[in-house]
Design brief:
By secondary structure, this protein is mostly beta strands. It is elongated. Belongs to the CvfB family. InterPro entries: CvfB_fam, CvfB_S1_st, CvfB_WH, NA-bd_OB-fold, WH-like_DNA-bd_sf.
């Protein structure tokens, strides 16, 4: 029985309180009545999330939480007690975040990026907003120019710190950001450079020639959405290009050049036109 994860279990028997499920090791868990499907048969298989209820008993749920063991997610704080904060993760029992695991003191109604892990001392699932300690760059599992999944972690003086593939810490420099980003945003990016110490420089745009085609498609879509015309040229300011297309002026010029060579656009004094 994998605590904090999705388990595929078999229906063993029905009781007044719900149905009991069993795993391959003959360990049983209750699926309370509120989650029991309208129709089922004994030995049917069912996917459930397994965790501990308010009385520290193993229990199953067909409701899937906003975060599972080993994951990162942005969660809302529902209440703070003398023991710590309790977060809404989509289940009846709230997810506990002890004071010692809070990077900043949590407040009710606030949203916090947290990591969910299994506390070996208590065998409970708990949250931590000290997310960096769950990331490791000693042995990288990514390479330069590889596309990666990102979660925006926190903003620094030089850019956004991001969680890379749920494993590593990376950085997107401020001058490479052309759209609004908030904590917890899930993004796609590319490993732009691996610096000494396995520090990861991340780009939100594909690097070099790899970036031309996606940006060209973005420009074509904007042209189609604006009756075939965009009031942008190579003389437009970087801010105007960023506001309209969420890309740098350098990327814009490369993409426009590619489209012009393919004879998909016309370039005139007042802007670009769809052919």
């Amino acid at each position: 029985m994998k605590l904090g994860e999705i388990n595929t279990l078999e229906i063993l028997r029905e009781t007044d309180h719900g149905i009991y499920l069993i795993d391959d090791n003959d360990e049983e868990v209750l699926l309370p009545n509120r989650y029991v499907p309208a129709e089922f048969k004994i030995w049917d298989k069912i996917d459930v999330f397994v965790y501990l209820d308010n009385e520290e008993r193993l229990v199953a749920s067909t409701d899937m939480p906003h975060i599972k063991k080993g994951e990162f997610a942005l969660l809302r704080c529902n209440q703070v007690t003398n023991f710590g904060a309790f977060l809404d993760w989509g289940l009846v029992k709230e997810l506990f975040c002890p004071f010692k695991e809070q990077a900043f003191k949590m407040k009710p109604g606030g949203w916090y990026l947290v990591h969910c892990y299994l506390d070996e001392k208590t065998d409970r699932l708990v949250a931590s907003s000290k997310t960096n300690r769950f990331l490791d760059n000693k042995e990288l599992t990514v390479e330069q120019f590889e596309e990666v999944d990102l979660i925006a972690s926190h903003l620094s003086d030089i850019g956004w710190n991001v969680i890379v593939n749920k494993k590593h810490l990376g950085l997107v420099y401020k001058d490479n950001i052309f759209k609004d980003i908030s904590v917890g945003d899930k993004l796609k990016g590319v490993v732009k450079k691996i610096r000494p110490g396995n520090k990861l420089d991340i780009s939100l745009e594909k690097v070099g020639y790899r970036n031309i085609e996606p940006n060209a498609q973005r420009i074509l879509k904007e042209l189609e959405d604006n009756s075939g015309f965009l009031n942008l040229t190579d003389k437009s300011s970087p801010e105007d290009i960023k506001n309209v297309l969420q890309m740098s002026k350098k990327s814009f010029k490369k993409a426009v050049g590619s489209l012009y060579k393919q004879r998909q656009i016309e370039i005139k004094g007042d802007g670009i036109y769809l052919v």
